[in-house]
Structures are given as structure tokens and as C-alpha cells.
Amino acid sequence: MAQATHSRPLKVLSEFVSNYGLLIVFVLVIVVFSALRPNTFLSSGNIGNLLTSQSITALLAFAVMLPLATGRFDMSVGYHIGLAHVLMIGLQVNASLPWPVAAGIVLATGVVIGLVNGILVARFKIDAFIATMGVGSLLYGVSNWYTDGQQIPGFSLPDSFTGLTGSFHGIPITALYVTAVAVLLWVLLERMPVGRSLYVIGSNARAAELSGLSVPNYVMGAFVGSGFLCALAGVLLASILRAATPSVGPEYLLPAFASVLLGATSIRPGRVNVVGTVLAVLVLAFSFSGVQQLGAAFYVEYFFNGGILILAVSLSVYAAIRRRKAAVAAAS
Fold it and tell me: Please, what is the average pLDDT of the chain?
């Protein structure tokens, strides 16, 4: 009895750290780097720049998260955002289209690309990793064909378009977009039957089929959602950069995956989730900003993201194993 009394607080502490570890790490990052760089780390300029630049990573991470909830990888997201931002600038500069029309075309194209990914994976049963990598390579080819491998400068872009990523009372507007998308996704995944169905498919597709779920339709829906979010991120990236460069895009792939997988180790350990993903984006961004301000070279970012990705995958696998063991123990 005494042993059980002593072990209960330890179990509660272990569960708290397991669920809110990322939040604890984020607070530690803020405290440590604020002490080391008190004049710059928490300055409004640094926070504003981080929130603006990381908004794109966060939207792309959400795009990765939706198919991953069903257990499928979408490796095309980096190339997709590259094509979306190229089209967004090109349709305005080369075709003289108003930006709302260009944005509508880009978003519709994103939905079509997501649907193609979904059909290849769900209907033709092609491995998601291979299918989306192939589609991504095709998209990269289209980006280079459309731009002839050259940058498209956006000197004449209207203020109403560039203002999409400005600030509102000192708050980056892109952060508000991310907040709105995060709330919608959280409601979808955590409070609606469709979200629970996606997670069930991700845990055991065969069991989901036997319970009557239309797995192909849900998987295609997840890829369509991913395609829309990639296109949305591309529109906002074009507004931030104000120029189209075909090579932009793939560099976002690693941070997006690292954020989603690291986020799966917290809040809902063992499965991808919205709050964990947002926390992971913030932890990675503020950590690297702090390291940069201490004098780290630019290439450290690649070591940083690669190391975090390996660590995140390891922790995610460990959390998933613990989740399965807990479920088995509860059922027995």
C-alpha cells in the first residue's frame, strides 16, 4: 500500500512531463536565451520576425499533419508551396491578373494537386512516400518550366496584396491566420467525428474498414486538405517575399516534418496533434533564434533541424509504443 502511495505522485509527474514536455521546454528556452541576450531575444522586432517567418512553416506543418493522421506521408508539400508562390507572383506579373483572381487559381490548383495525391495513394494503392515524392518532383519541374529557372521580381505588386502579411496593432497578420487555421483544425480533429475517423485509420486501417469507414475517401480528403493548406502557405509566402524563385519551397520540408513529429511527442503523445505542432514550431524557431544570437553560423540550422527530426521520430515512436501498451493494459 505504501509503495502504491509513493508511486502515484511519480506517475502523475511522469504523465505531466509526457503531456506538457514541449511547453516546459519552450518556457526554458525563453528563460535561458532571455537571460543570455536580454536586449535582443524578446525584442518586438525579433518576435515579430519569428512569428512572420514561422507562420509559413506552421501552415506547411499542418499540411503535413493531415495525411500523417491517417498514417500517410505527403513528401510533395515543399515543392507544392514552391509552385504556389511562383504561380501567385507569375499570374500577377506576367498575366496581369488581379491578386484575388490569382489567389483563387492557386488555391484551386492546390486542391487539385491534393486530390491527385489522394487518388494515387487511396485508389491506385501506390505507397504514399513514393507517390507524393513523384508528384513533388513533377511540381518542381513545372515551377522551373514556368519561370524558365529565373526569378520573377514583383516590383509592381499591389499594396493590398503585400499588405496581406503586414501587421495589425504590432501583431503579424500571418500569426493571426495561423491561429485561425489551428483553431479550425483542432475542432476538426479533436471535436468532430471526421477527426476521430482520421486517427482511427492512422492507427489501424483494417479495423477502420471493418467498422464501416470509407478509408479511401477519408485519405483523399486528408490529401485535399493538405493541398489547400500548401497553396494558402504559398500565397502568403509570395506576399512576404514579393518575388518568385523556383528553388524556394523544398527547404521548408524538413522543418515542417520535424515540427509535426516533435509535436506528436507532447499534448497527445503518440499521435500528431495541432497544439503539439504549434508548440514544436515555436520551440524550434525560438531555440534556433537564440543559438543564432549567440553567434552560431548559418549552416547550424541544418544540423539543428536534422538532429531535431531524428530525436522527434525516436520520441514519437517511443510515445506510440507507450500509448499501445497503456491501451492493452486498460483493456486487459
Answer: 89
Contact (CB, 8 A) for 132 and 73: yes
Q: Give the pTM.
A: 0.90
- The DSSP output letter for 167 is E
User: Quick check: helix, strand or coil at residue 169?
Assistant: coil
C-alpha cell belonging to residue 224: 485535399
Task: Say how far apart CA 74 and CA 224 lie, in whole Å.
Answer: 11
Mean pLDDT is lowest, of 55-69, 154-168, 318-332, for 318-332
Spatial separation of the C-alpha atoms in residues 87 and 100, rounded to whole Å? 13
Burial class (CB in 10 A: 0-12, 13-18, 19+), 142: middle
CA–CA distance, 215 with 205 (Å, rounded to integer): 7
What's the CA gap between 325 and 319, in Å, rounded?
Answer: 10
Q: How far is CA 41 from CA 38, 286, 301, in A?
A: 6, 9, 17
With CA atoms as reference, report the closest residue to 235 among 85, 116, 134, 120: 85
Q: Which residue has the cell 483542432?
A: 186
Which residues does residue 244 pair with via DSSP β-bridges, in sequence order? 152
Q: How far is CA 121 from CA 2, 40, 258, in A?
A: 54, 47, 23
Give the span between the Cα atoms of 269 and 66, in whole angstroms.
16
Give Cα 63 to chain centroid, integer Å.
5
**Residues 306 and 254 sit within 8 Å (Cβ to Cβ):** yes
Distance set, CA 217 to CA 4, 43, 185, 208 (Å):
47, 47, 18, 12
pLDDT value of position 269 = 80
Residues in the chain: 332
Query: pLDDT tens digits, residue range 102-134?
Result: 999 999 999 999 999 999 999 999 999 999 999
Is residue 323 very low, low, confident or very high in pLDDT (cuts 50, 70, 90)? low
